[in-house]
Design a protein that fits this description.
Pfam families: ABC_tran. This is Fe-S cluster assembly ATPase SufC. Belongs to the ABC transporter superfamily. Ycf16 family. InterPro entries: ABC_transporter-like_ATP-bd (IPR003439), ABC_transporter-like_CS (IPR017871), FeS-cluster_ATPase_SufC (IPR010230), P-loop_NTPase (IPR027417). By secondary structure, the chain is an alpha/beta fold. The protein has a domain of 166 residues: Rossmann fold. It is 30% helix and 27% strand. The strands form 3 sheets. The protein has a 6-stranded mixed sheet, with helices on both faces. Strands 2-1-4-5 form a 4-stranded antiparallel sheet. A hairpin with a 2-residue loop joins strand 11 and strand 12. It starts with a strand and ends in a 12-residue tail after the last helix.
């Protein structure tokens, strides 16, 4: 079993060291095989946590640590974290002109494999065709430039295509449900659920309980004012849907 540990994590924006911390002591442990949901009001640090875990250089860790199986990854750059098995499903996926969807995904897969064990082209194409069919994506999306001209829903579905093809160990999924209609939400959720297994773990950031009707998390956390203030089982998401976040105060609950 592999373990991701976040210990007393404090984070600032690198270009604004005089500004207050965004994360103010986050403690969180995720084991392989688990799916965790992270909920909470806007502007309280959820996306910052995902970006920091992925190694976005915009953020600097001012205190605390991030450990994978006991080894710190705080100084590890983004590409090394990706090779270690980290994947970020972005809230706002970037558009890259001149690189096709298929080219990008194959390059990402091969970057995690030795030079003498690159994925054969026909194996890759067969897997890509099957996964796109599972996600009900038209075949021509493989040959379109990465996210270029994609609708919001297509971009989110494309993030799940990348997830299913790359098969990371640690998936950080930031609001993959935003902008999706109910049919697209089911398809995206089915894609995430198909990844469940002993070698996979995910931290899913969402505002809405409806996603968790389709992806049942093992643990639900609530973040407010840069801290995790409450942790519980799947029922916590249902409670929050009824009560909202106003009654929660930073410092309540536990990290």
């Amino acid at each position: 079993m592999s373990t991701l540990e976040i210990k007393d994590l404090h984070v600032k924006v690198k270009a604004e060291p005089e500004h207050p911390e965004i994360l103010k002591g986050v403690n969180l442990t995720i084991n392989s095989g688990e799916i965790h949901a992270l909920m909470g009001p806007n502007g309280n640090g959820k996306s910052t946590l995902a970006e920091t875990l992925m190694g976005n250089p915009r953020y600097v860790v001012s205190q605390g640590d991030i450990l994978v199986d006991g080894q710190s990854i705080v100084s590890m750059p983004v590409d090394e974290r990706a090779r270690l098995g980290f994947f970020l499903g972005m809230q706002y996926p970037a558009e890259i002109n001149g690189v096709t969807n298929a080219e990008f995904i194959r390059a990402a897969i091969n970057a995690r494999r030795p030079d003498d064990d690159q994925i054969p082209i026909m194996t890759f194409l067969n897997q890509l065709d099957a996964t796109m069919a599972q996600l009900k994506m038209p075949e021509d999306m493989a040959d379109r430039y990465l996210n270029q001209g994609f609708s919001g829903g297509e971009k989110k579905r494309n993030e799940i295509l990348q997830l299913m093809m790359i098969r990371p160990h640690w998936a950080l999924l930031d609001e993959i449900d935003s902008g999706l209609d109910i049919d697209a939400l089911r398809i995206v959720a089915d894609g995430v659920n198909s990844m469940r297994g002993a070698a996979f773990a995910s931290l899913i950031i969402t505002h809405y309980e409806r996603l968790l009707d389709y992806i049942t998390p093992d643990v639900v956390h609530v973040m407010k004012d840069g801290r995790i203030i409450e942790t519980g089982g799947p029922e916590l998401a249902h409670t929050l849907e009824q009560t909202g976040y106003e009654h929660l105060k930073a410092g309540d609950g536990h990290d």
